[in-house]
Write a structure and sequence with these properties.
Blueprint: E1 2-3, E2 9-13, E3 16-19, H1 20-40, H2 49-74, H3 77-82, H4 97-115, H5 119-144, E4 158-159, H6 171-192, H7 194-197, H8 202-218, H9 237-260
Parallel strand pairs: 1-4
Antiparallel strand pairs: 2-3
Helix pairs in contact: 1-2, 1-5, 2-4, 4-5, 5-6, 5-8, 6-8, 8-9
Length: about 260
Protein backbone atom coordinates (compact mmCIF):
# COMPACT_ATOMS: atom_id res chain seq x y z
CA UNK A 1 0.00 0.00 0.00
CA UNK A 2 1.10 3.56 -0.72
CA UNK A 3 1.77 5.82 2.25
CA UNK A 4 0.96 9.46 1.51
CA UNK A 5 3.79 11.72 2.59
CA UNK A 6 3.54 14.98 0.67
CA UNK A 7 4.64 18.26 2.19
CA UNK A 8 1.57 20.57 2.33
CA UNK A 9 3.96 23.53 1.96
CA UNK A 10 4.75 24.14 -1.71
CA UNK A 11 7.61 26.57 -1.04
CA UNK A 12 8.68 29.26 1.42
CA UNK A 13 9.77 32.89 1.30
CA UNK A 14 11.78 33.40 4.45
CA UNK A 15 9.34 32.96 7.35
CA UNK A 16 6.32 32.79 5.03
CA UNK A 17 5.06 29.39 3.89
CA UNK A 18 3.08 29.08 0.66
CA UNK A 19 0.81 26.06 0.93
CA UNK A 20 -0.71 23.97 -1.82
CA UNK A 21 -4.09 24.71 -0.28
CA UNK A 22 -3.68 28.43 -0.96
CA UNK A 23 -2.31 27.82 -4.43
CA UNK A 24 -5.33 25.67 -5.29
CA UNK A 25 -7.60 28.67 -4.77
CA UNK A 26 -5.31 30.94 -6.76
CA UNK A 27 -5.06 28.50 -9.68
CA UNK A 28 -8.79 27.84 -9.66
CA UNK A 29 -9.71 31.51 -9.69
CA UNK A 30 -7.15 32.54 -12.33
CA UNK A 31 -7.99 29.71 -14.73
CA UNK A 32 -11.72 30.30 -14.27
CA UNK A 33 -11.28 34.02 -14.89
CA UNK A 34 -9.28 33.31 -18.05
CA UNK A 35 -11.85 30.87 -19.48
CA UNK A 36 -14.79 33.19 -18.83
CA UNK A 37 -12.99 36.17 -20.38
CA UNK A 38 -11.55 34.40 -23.41
CA UNK A 39 -14.29 31.96 -24.33
CA UNK A 40 -17.61 32.25 -22.52
CA UNK A 41 -18.55 35.95 -22.65
CA UNK A 42 -18.43 35.80 -26.46
CA UNK A 43 -21.90 34.29 -26.19
CA UNK A 44 -23.14 36.93 -23.73
CA UNK A 45 -23.58 40.20 -25.60
CA UNK A 46 -24.55 42.14 -22.47
CA UNK A 47 -21.50 41.06 -20.44
CA UNK A 48 -17.99 42.37 -21.06
CA UNK A 49 -14.55 41.80 -19.59
CA UNK A 50 -14.85 44.73 -17.19
CA UNK A 51 -17.96 43.21 -15.67
CA UNK A 52 -16.20 39.86 -15.21
CA UNK A 53 -13.07 41.48 -13.76
CA UNK A 54 -15.14 43.38 -11.20
CA UNK A 55 -17.21 40.31 -10.37
CA UNK A 56 -14.07 38.28 -9.59
CA UNK A 57 -13.27 40.57 -6.67
CA UNK A 58 -16.70 39.93 -5.17
CA UNK A 59 -16.42 36.20 -5.79
CA UNK A 60 -13.05 35.91 -4.04
CA UNK A 61 -14.52 37.48 -0.91
CA UNK A 62 -17.65 35.34 -1.17
CA UNK A 63 -15.71 32.10 -1.62
CA UNK A 64 -13.32 32.71 1.27
CA UNK A 65 -15.85 34.07 3.77
CA UNK A 66 -18.62 31.70 2.76
CA UNK A 67 -16.38 28.66 2.66
CA UNK A 68 -14.87 29.36 6.06
CA UNK A 69 -18.09 30.39 7.81
CA UNK A 70 -19.84 27.39 6.29
CA UNK A 71 -17.20 25.05 7.66
CA UNK A 72 -17.41 26.63 11.10
CA UNK A 73 -21.21 26.38 11.23
CA UNK A 74 -21.76 23.05 9.48
CA UNK A 75 -18.75 20.99 10.47
CA UNK A 76 -16.97 22.17 13.62
CA UNK A 77 -19.01 24.81 15.43
CA UNK A 78 -18.25 23.55 18.95
CA UNK A 79 -14.49 23.74 18.39
CA UNK A 80 -14.48 27.22 16.88
CA UNK A 81 -16.85 28.66 19.45
CA UNK A 82 -14.27 27.66 22.07
CA UNK A 83 -11.26 28.77 19.99
CA UNK A 84 -12.55 31.70 17.87
CA UNK A 85 -9.07 32.85 16.81
CA UNK A 86 -8.68 29.57 14.91
CA UNK A 87 -11.38 30.73 12.50
CA UNK A 88 -8.98 33.05 10.69
CA UNK A 89 -6.37 30.32 10.15
CA UNK A 90 -7.73 29.17 6.81
CA UNK A 91 -4.25 28.06 5.73
CA UNK A 92 -4.72 25.07 8.01
CA UNK A 93 -7.65 23.91 5.92
CA UNK A 94 -11.31 23.78 6.76
CA UNK A 95 -13.50 25.15 3.97
CA UNK A 96 -17.03 24.09 3.13
CA UNK A 97 -18.14 23.80 -0.50
CA UNK A 98 -21.75 24.50 0.40
CA UNK A 99 -20.70 27.53 2.42
CA UNK A 100 -18.51 28.74 -0.43
CA UNK A 101 -21.41 28.29 -2.87
CA UNK A 102 -23.68 30.29 -0.60
CA UNK A 103 -20.97 32.96 -0.42
CA UNK A 104 -20.82 33.07 -4.22
CA UNK A 105 -24.60 33.44 -4.44
CA UNK A 106 -24.68 36.28 -1.93
CA UNK A 107 -21.65 38.10 -3.35
CA UNK A 108 -22.99 37.80 -6.91
CA UNK A 109 -26.37 39.11 -5.80
CA UNK A 110 -24.74 42.11 -4.10
CA UNK A 111 -22.67 42.73 -7.23
CA UNK A 112 -25.76 42.62 -9.43
CA UNK A 113 -27.60 45.03 -7.14
CA UNK A 114 -24.69 47.48 -7.23
CA UNK A 115 -23.92 47.17 -10.94
CA UNK A 116 -27.47 46.64 -12.25
CA UNK A 117 -26.57 43.27 -13.78
CA UNK A 118 -28.83 40.24 -14.28
CA UNK A 119 -28.14 37.68 -11.55
CA UNK A 120 -28.62 34.47 -13.55
CA UNK A 121 -26.68 35.81 -16.53
CA UNK A 122 -23.64 35.85 -14.27
CA UNK A 123 -24.27 32.69 -12.28
CA UNK A 124 -24.73 30.76 -15.53
CA UNK A 125 -21.16 31.73 -16.36
CA UNK A 126 -19.74 31.05 -12.90
CA UNK A 127 -21.14 27.51 -12.65
CA UNK A 128 -19.45 26.60 -15.93
CA UNK A 129 -16.02 27.11 -14.40
CA UNK A 130 -16.82 26.22 -10.79
CA UNK A 131 -15.70 22.59 -11.34
CA UNK A 132 -12.20 23.88 -12.08
CA UNK A 133 -11.92 25.34 -8.59
CA UNK A 134 -13.41 22.19 -7.11
CA UNK A 135 -10.80 20.08 -8.91
CA UNK A 136 -7.85 22.04 -7.53
CA UNK A 137 -9.42 22.17 -4.08
CA UNK A 138 -9.79 18.39 -3.91
CA UNK A 139 -6.22 17.89 -5.08
CA UNK A 140 -5.14 20.17 -2.24
CA UNK A 141 -7.22 18.08 0.18
CA UNK A 142 -5.34 15.02 -1.03
CA UNK A 143 -1.94 16.66 -0.60
CA UNK A 144 -2.91 17.75 2.91
CA UNK A 145 -4.02 14.22 3.74
CA UNK A 146 -7.42 15.52 4.89
CA UNK A 147 -10.99 14.48 4.05
CA UNK A 148 -9.69 11.01 3.30
CA UNK A 149 -11.83 8.00 2.43
CA UNK A 150 -13.14 5.03 4.30
CA UNK A 151 -11.06 1.96 5.02
CA UNK A 152 -10.64 -0.34 2.02
CA UNK A 153 -8.93 -3.61 1.12
CA UNK A 154 -8.65 -2.54 -2.50
CA UNK A 155 -5.18 -2.12 -4.00
CA UNK A 156 -5.84 1.55 -4.65
CA UNK A 157 -5.99 2.15 -0.89
CA UNK A 158 -3.64 4.76 0.56
CA UNK A 159 -2.41 5.11 4.13
CA UNK A 160 -2.94 8.68 5.29
CA UNK A 161 -0.82 9.80 8.23
CA UNK A 162 -3.83 11.33 9.95
CA UNK A 163 -6.08 8.40 9.13
CA UNK A 164 -4.47 5.61 11.10
CA UNK A 165 -2.51 2.55 9.92
CA UNK A 166 -5.14 1.07 7.59
CA UNK A 167 -5.41 1.88 3.86
CA UNK A 168 -8.26 4.13 2.83
CA UNK A 169 -9.99 5.19 -0.36
CA UNK A 170 -8.32 8.28 -1.89
CA UNK A 171 -11.76 9.87 -1.94
CA UNK A 172 -10.26 13.31 -2.56
CA UNK A 173 -9.10 12.07 -5.97
CA UNK A 174 -12.50 10.53 -6.69
CA UNK A 175 -14.05 13.92 -5.99
CA UNK A 176 -11.42 15.76 -8.05
CA UNK A 177 -12.26 13.56 -11.03
CA UNK A 178 -16.04 13.44 -10.63
CA UNK A 179 -16.89 16.79 -9.04
CA UNK A 180 -14.14 18.50 -11.01
CA UNK A 181 -13.30 17.08 -14.42
CA UNK A 182 -16.47 15.07 -15.05
CA UNK A 183 -18.78 17.87 -13.90
CA UNK A 184 -16.86 20.35 -16.06
CA UNK A 185 -17.50 18.15 -19.10
CA UNK A 186 -21.18 17.86 -18.19
CA UNK A 187 -21.57 21.63 -17.88
CA UNK A 188 -19.65 22.23 -21.11
CA UNK A 189 -21.91 19.85 -23.03
CA UNK A 190 -25.04 21.56 -21.70
CA UNK A 191 -23.54 24.96 -22.50
CA UNK A 192 -22.95 23.88 -26.10
CA UNK A 193 -26.73 23.56 -26.53
CA UNK A 194 -27.97 27.01 -27.58
CA UNK A 195 -31.51 26.35 -26.37
CA UNK A 196 -30.21 25.63 -22.87
CA UNK A 197 -27.71 28.46 -22.93
CA UNK A 198 -30.32 31.09 -23.70
CA UNK A 199 -32.60 30.15 -20.77
CA UNK A 200 -31.53 32.29 -17.80
CA UNK A 201 -30.76 30.22 -14.73
CA UNK A 202 -31.01 26.84 -16.40
CA UNK A 203 -27.28 26.15 -16.30
CA UNK A 204 -27.21 27.25 -12.68
CA UNK A 205 -29.94 24.77 -11.81
CA UNK A 206 -28.28 21.98 -13.77
CA UNK A 207 -25.03 22.55 -11.91
CA UNK A 208 -26.74 22.39 -8.50
CA UNK A 209 -28.55 19.16 -9.36
CA UNK A 210 -25.53 17.54 -11.02
CA UNK A 211 -23.12 18.43 -8.23
CA UNK A 212 -25.53 17.18 -5.57
CA UNK A 213 -25.91 13.78 -7.21
CA UNK A 214 -22.16 13.38 -7.75
CA UNK A 215 -21.30 14.54 -4.22
CA UNK A 216 -23.80 12.15 -2.63
CA UNK A 217 -22.14 9.30 -4.55
CA UNK A 218 -18.60 10.37 -3.62
CA UNK A 219 -19.55 10.59 0.04
CA UNK A 220 -20.12 6.83 0.00
CA UNK A 221 -16.33 6.45 -0.12
CA UNK A 222 -15.42 9.36 2.14
CA UNK A 223 -14.89 8.96 5.86
CA UNK A 224 -17.36 11.12 7.81
CA UNK A 225 -15.76 13.80 9.94
CA UNK A 226 -14.74 12.07 13.15
CA UNK A 227 -16.33 14.74 15.37
CA UNK A 228 -19.64 14.52 13.48
CA UNK A 229 -19.99 11.00 12.13
CA UNK A 230 -23.25 10.12 10.42
CA UNK A 231 -25.92 12.65 11.27
CA UNK A 232 -28.98 10.62 10.23
CA UNK A 233 -28.64 6.83 9.90
CA UNK A 234 -25.88 6.51 7.26
CA UNK A 235 -26.19 10.04 5.89
CA UNK A 236 -23.15 12.30 6.15
CA UNK A 237 -23.24 16.05 6.60
CA UNK A 238 -22.17 16.52 2.98
CA UNK A 239 -25.03 14.36 1.74
CA UNK A 240 -27.49 16.12 4.04
CA UNK A 241 -26.51 19.56 2.72
CA UNK A 242 -26.76 18.26 -0.85
CA UNK A 243 -30.43 17.46 -0.31
CA UNK A 244 -31.14 21.18 0.02
CA UNK A 245 -28.87 22.02 -2.90
CA UNK A 246 -30.65 19.43 -5.04
CA UNK A 247 -34.06 20.88 -4.20
CA UNK A 248 -32.77 24.38 -4.89
CA UNK A 249 -31.43 23.25 -8.27
CA UNK A 250 -34.74 21.64 -9.22
CA UNK A 251 -36.55 24.83 -8.23
CA UNK A 252 -34.22 26.96 -10.39
CA UNK A 253 -34.63 24.62 -13.38
CA UNK A 254 -38.44 24.72 -13.12
CA UNK A 255 -38.39 28.49 -12.69
CA UNK A 256 -36.15 28.87 -15.73
CA UNK A 257 -38.40 26.79 -17.94
CA UNK A 258 -41.58 28.58 -16.89
CA UNK A 259 -39.99 32.02 -17.18
CA UNK A 260 -38.52 31.36 -20.61
CA UNK A 261 -41.54 29.67 -22.14
Amino acid sequence: MTVLNINPIAFSFGPFDIRWYSLSYIFGILISWFIINKFLIKHKNDIDSNTVNNLINYLIIGIILGGRIGYVLFYNFEFYINYPLEIIKIWNGGMSFHGGLLGIIISTYIFCMNKKEVFFDLTDLVVLVAPIGIFFGRIANFINGELYGRITENNIGIIFQNGGPLPRHPSQLYEAILEGLFLFIIMFLFWKNKNIRKKQGLLTGIFCVSYSIIRVFCELFREPDYHIGFIIDKITMGQFLCIFLLLFGIFIICKSYFKNE
